[in-house]
Amino acid sequence: MTITYVDLDVRPILIAGGEPFGEIMAAVEGLPPGHGLRLLASFKPVPLFAVMAKRGFDHAEREIGDGDWEVLFSPAGAAAAPAPEPVAADGSNWPAPVGEAMDLRDLDPPEPMQKVMQAIEAADPGDVVSALLCRKPPILIPELETLGHEWHGGFEDGGESYRIFIRKRAG
Amino acid sequence: MMGATLSRWTMSFFAAALLSLIMAEVLMILGVGYPTEGIADAGSLIVVHVTAIGWLSLLMCGALLQFLPVLVARTLYSDRLSLPALVALVTGLFALVLGFMQFGGIMQTQAPWFALAAVLLIAGFALILWNLALTLKEADEVPLPVWFVIGGLIAAVFTVGLGAVFATTLGGGQVGWMAVLTGAGVPVHAIAGLGGWLTFTAMGVSYRLLAMFMLAPDLSRPTTRLALILGSAALAIAVVGGIAVILADGNLTLALLAALVIGVAALVLYGFDIVFLYRKRRRPVIELNSRTAGIALASLAATVVLMLVLVAFGQLGNQIAAVVFLAAFGWLTGLGLSQLFKIVAFMTWLETYGPIMGRMPTPRVQDLVVEERARKWFWTYFGGTWTATLALLAGQALLFRVMVLVMLIGTLGLVAQFLRTRRLLDIDAAKRLPEGTRKPQLLISNAT
Questions:
Q1: Contact B365 A147 (CB under 8 A)
Q2: C-alpha closest to that of B338 among B298, B303, B302, B305
Q3: Shared-domain flag, residues B121 and B182
Q4: What are the pLDDT digits (tens) for A46-75?
Q5: ipTM higher than the 0.90 cut
Q6: Pair B47, B85 in one domain
Q7: Is the peptide bond before B35 cis (omega within 30 degrees of 0)?
Q8: In terms of residue numbers, what domain contains B158?
């Protein structure tokens, strides 16, 4: 499938000694679903690759002369539809969680979120991690959805604990 | 990453709010307004509105832009509406102050400051409400605390609406019903603002924030529901009923007394809930912000008791300034400064370390603040506030001004702590900015 690219030339900002990161992120935010970003920069923007990968973009870069670079950021698996409205996954056919279930109920926010992210980072794609929290996590859930991990969860102990299962995104 | 959960302009709202608080305190120290001047004089009106709009409303708006989306697990409808709203509110307040100066004969100009203030303040609050309403519209479920916030926002509409009517009348508008409302509606305007918009919203936000930071369960108890129903009823009677009674030339005092009885019942239930939260917490030793929030809550209780005692002795009319002062500075400002201490650290942590969270070690949120240093400023602030309230009750104008100076010292001490937190100054320089992080800007939160 062909991807339509939106152009962004940050060379003038870089030459003026500015920081184009905000500009780039704004452009990424503004991309219509399925569109890619064609970035022109005066150096190979390696740190950006990881940031964009987190946001679900593959990259392909080439030098275009005078030390300038063109980078094509394409939505990973461009055929995949944009994420639907955030809904918890069903999870009935998920594998058993890896490792011990973490009891994070006595940690101060945002440490539970940090521990969960750490566990996801350490897990293999497709693995499931689980944690016991003292509430439905208001910041973690949108974050998981942004990163493309599936989750489901529910209250326990008459509403005083919340158990969450997270399946790390494949690939 | 983390961009979706951070409101871009909230820190700017907080900065403008804190500057207004400092300004209001400086004005009181200089002897502007009550008790040096009369309670309805221009100086008093200026101090009241710099506090209510400049400090408390901007603080609340900034906090809601950040927390309402989190409470309903949605993203803010628009980050772009926030800055125009802030500009409209600040310039609107400026125009209002000029209007009061004109009204008090302090400044001789013919410019229509009141009309301009009304237009700008309506625009500013409307932008905020629009943004929050569209955020709420996307919510799957509206948790109980958010209903308090919705009640508070409706009260804000009435507060601003009545304020606009007053401004139009004072600015020379000659409509009969407007003049009637302006003549008798000031208590209703004050109750809608202080009791509805600010207190009711603060109650809703405090249910969640206190639970979150003390590791207590989110409440959905019958008492919470009843507090919501009674509180809403009290506000409806005082505000909607109050306006109707004034326009129908009825007995406003009776309506306000009925609202007082029901409102006190709502606050008592809220008190039970909060005590329950403190008891059910999983955290054995609570942090400074939760302790100082407790002092603010005690100030709310003291405000209610003071009000009831004054009503019993038929002195409420003479001493209303002390009640309003304790509510605004003991309760609302106390709670606001307490929560700012934590929120600034929390937001700064998310912005700085969110992008590398889970992938490498980061400082903790607690490392962004030094409780030992902040504690004395909180005590200075609260000590000043309580003594200033007593000075008002005793009619000691000079003592009052000296105590507000003490409050100002406490405030400045805390503002310095907030700035240090935002600049990450209390973190060991070597650990401050690991690879992949950026130093946050002072006034803007960047999505990273």
A1: no
A2: B298
A3: no
A4: 778 888 888 888 888 887 877 788 888 888
A5: no
A6: yes
A7: yes
A8: 147-284
